[in-house]
Amino acid sequence: MLIKTRLGRTVEVREDYTVDQHWEDFTAEEHDRWDRLYARQGKILQGRACKEFMDGLELLSLSDGGIPNFEKLSEKLMKATGWQVVAVPDLVPDDVFFEHLANRRFPAGNFIRSEAQLDYLQEPDVFHDVYGHVPMLANPVFADYMEAYGKGGQVAAGRGVLPNLARLYWYTVEFGLIKTDEGMRIYGAGIVSSKSESIFSLEDNSPHRIHFDLERLMKTDYRIDDFQQTYWVIESFDELLEATYQDFGPLYDRLEQAGDPFKPADILDGDIVYNNGTQEYANKGGRLAEAS
């Protein structure tokens, strides 16, 4: 079908919701916007982002001037972990998203935020999707996790437990933290692509930081319009991958019988708590995060 994109072009959208990137149609101003966002985050993430993310940035050469060409980017990513990046005009339906991930294709928005949206954008644009997500796909363990998540999503869709699975993605892929020998670090795309949350997630005393627990996490609601009230912390990416390789059938059975989800700021007996946050930011009403 034909649709008009955010870049003002009319393009043919395939059945899998992919489009041709038409990299040559991005303007000099849009490439410059990418470069400024890249440079800003590079300064903020030193000592905050995990080594795996920083290694991915370097391996994929995402600083080579302007918005990456997906074809060239996919060549490098394919050699590293067998993944590729495909352009989509906007958010895609859940079943399409899972199908892409299950086949090692990451769908990335084919537009970049406007100048007025430099600090905050609700929709995932090319900077969030490529800068935030793709470097971690160059890590073999995390790449396997994302494939496993896609396959798990295909199963979950038939069980009616997609909200639970969405929480897993949100609290790990988008807003996850990891313990390292150097201290706590960021790996979640929603944080690494955000100026303000890169600092808030690690250094502010307001949010809780709790050790990753798959079932507990999948029962917990999250914020979609502001900084998170709780960040979940993994020990390693192997821990994350192993959690998704289990048989989810019994887990889904329990989730289907569970009552109302926990609130984002709840702390329960049995939680391993790294920081019992004050929740001061949320209690004061918060504000739309100045980042995306």
Secondary structure category: alpha/beta
Spans with pLDDT under 50 lasting ≥5 residues? 288-292
Largest beta sheet: what is the strand line-up? 6-5-8-7-9
How large is the count of helical segments? 13
Shape: globular
DSSP, total strands: 9
Mean of all residue-level pLDDT scores: 91
The whole-angstrom Rg is: 19 Å
Biggest sheet architecture: 5 strands, mixed
Strand content: 5-15%
Helical proportion? 40-55%
What is the element string, with H for helices and E for strands? EEHHHEHEHHHEEHHEHEHHEH
> What is the terminal-to-terminal distance?
29 Å
Oligomeric state of the chains in view: single chain
Description:
The chain has helices spanning 28-45, 51-60, 70-81, 94-102, 126-137, 140-157, 162-174, 189-192, 195-203, 214-218, 237-244, 249-257, 280-283; strands at residues 2-4, 10-12, 84-88, 105-109, 177-180, 183-186, 208-211, 230-234, 273-275. The chain is of the alpha/beta class and 292 residues long. A 5-stranded mixed beta sheet has the order 6-5-8-7-9. Strands 1-2 form a two-stranded antiparallel ribbon. It has a two-stranded parallel ribbon with strand order 3-4. Helix 4 (94-102) packs across helix 6 (140-157), helix 6 packs antiparallel against helix 7 and helix 6 (140-157) runs parallel beside helix 11. Mean pLDDT is 91; it is low at 288-292.
Task: Pick out its properties.
disordered C terminus, about 45% helix, alpha/beta, about 290 residues, globular, five-stranded mixed beta sheet, about 10% strand, single chain, two-stranded antiparallel ribbon
